[in-house]
Amino acid sequence: MMKAREIAVQALREVEVNHAKSDTALNHFFSITALEPVDRAFTMQIVYGTLREKMKIDHVIKQFYRHDYDKMDIDVKNILRIGAYQLLFLSKVPRWAAVNESVELAKKLKGQFLGNLVNGVLRNISNNLESVDFSIQGGTFADQIALKYSHPRWLLERWISTYGFLEAQNIMEANNLIPRIAFRINRLKNAPEKFQQKLLAENVTFRKSILPDFVIPDRFFDLEPFLSTGEVSVQSEAQALACRLLNPQPGQKVLDMCAAPGGKSTYLAEMMANAGQITSLDLYDNKLEDIDRLASALGIDIISTIKHDATRFSHEEGFDAILLDAPCTGTGVLSRRAELRWRLSEADLAALSNLQYQLLENAAKMAKPDAAIVYSTCSIEPEENQVLIEKFLNAHPEWQLQSAIEILPDEFHEVVHDKGYISLLPGKNGFDGAFSARLVRKA
Ligand SMILES: C[S@@+](CC[C@H](N)C(=O)[O-])C[C@H]1O[C@@H](n2cnc3c(N)ncnc32)[C@H](O)[C@@H]1O
């Protein structure tokens, strides 16, 4: 049976060779291997941590590996990476364990010779941890900062010019932290206060959120049993804010234009007391099945999923409320989507903001006269957010932005920008980076 570190190496191979998402790869291996919750947590920690800190880890390994690192077998490379990650970042793992476990894994997967190689490199790193060089010889200032925070240079240069040097550092620091996992209490099954009492009675420790129907448990696995009963679902609080801003009412006809995997559609349904109609669009059958599965686990039956390109969907009667949670670069959630920073390019940004604009224009066509549209992303790039909204409002003077202050209760006002939209940077207020704006027609 595979153990934590072996699963980590297999998952990292899937991410690098087959371009899988790290959480999808991990969930696959967890579904075929029985691991204790604590071992699952450790596996996630080393996979996500290794992906986030990859630039720094590779820089260190190259100091102790004298051959062509780029040509190294991918599994050996990932065994070295997870070993180096433990040595550099996990003070609770004894150094001898980080080295020995990696060596045994290399022998098991790749034979004695490569086991010896892993032993040589990791032992060397372990013996020289205090004198490892964390600078790039002859590199520019930007190169050194990129290495310090393990981010691609183009991204950090972009954030420095958008947010300034200090804020850019704060963003990168937050991106390297373990993200907090919040659970949404399904109010169709329990009143939030009652569910929290139930957790306390079972000695589950948790923190409250500014969202009264959310809890953040100290240990993820304490809430796992309630996922299967449909009493909770996992959702980032920043993402939930977009739904709160739409503020749908029971009985309304709501459209969720880019809906999979259904986190927001299902929250909208819970807010509507499972009364009314929600049409949830997405491009792929398998993703629509995810929405159906989640809705059914949560006891929701007002969601109809439709496979359709939302730039071309039309609806004669129109909708009372439209959520456009647009496909985006995801630069607000790089701590959760650990591999994403290495996959993104500036070309993605241009293509996505083009698509987002088309989606928004189509949303406007499907909105009833007094309907609201909420446009949201998990990006922190102005071109996908406020700049795009300004462009839309300039081209469509009959629309205006309605301030989130008018919709959200007082305790949320600290996350509302002066201009009335919600704009969050990673790590600020404990949230992910996200954007949402509510648009309505002028009277
Ligand atoms: C940010 S995710 C949505 C997350 C979802 N709202 C939630 O909270 O669970 C964006 C989704 O848009 C879908 N998508 C991308 N282009 C689309 C299009 N042209 N029409 C409809 N859906 C699209 C993607 O397949 C993806 O599932």
From TrEMBL:
GO molecular function: RNA binding; rRNA methyltransferase activity
Biological process (GO), any one: regulation of DNA-templated transcription
Pfam family name, one: NusB
Main location, first listed in the record: cytoplasm
Enzymatic reactions: cytidine(967) in 16S rRNA + S-adenosyl-L-methionine = 5-methylcytidine(967) in 16S rRNA + S-adenosyl-L-homocysteine + H(+)
Domain annotation SAM-dependent MTase RsmB/NOP-type: ranges: 171-442
Domain of life: Bacteria
UniProtKB keywords: Cytoplasm, Methyltransferase, RNA-binding, rRNA processing, S-adenosyl-L-methionine, Transferase
Positions with a binding annotation for S-adenosyl-L-methionine: C258, A259, A260, P261, G262, G263, K264, D282, D309, D325
Protein family per UniProt: Belongs to the class I-like SAM-binding methyltransferase superfamily. RsmB/NOP family.
The protein's role, per its UniProt record: Specifically methylates the cytosine at position 967 (m5C967) of 16S rRNA.
Name of the protein this chain belongs to: 16S rRNA (cytosine(967)-C(5))-methyltransferase
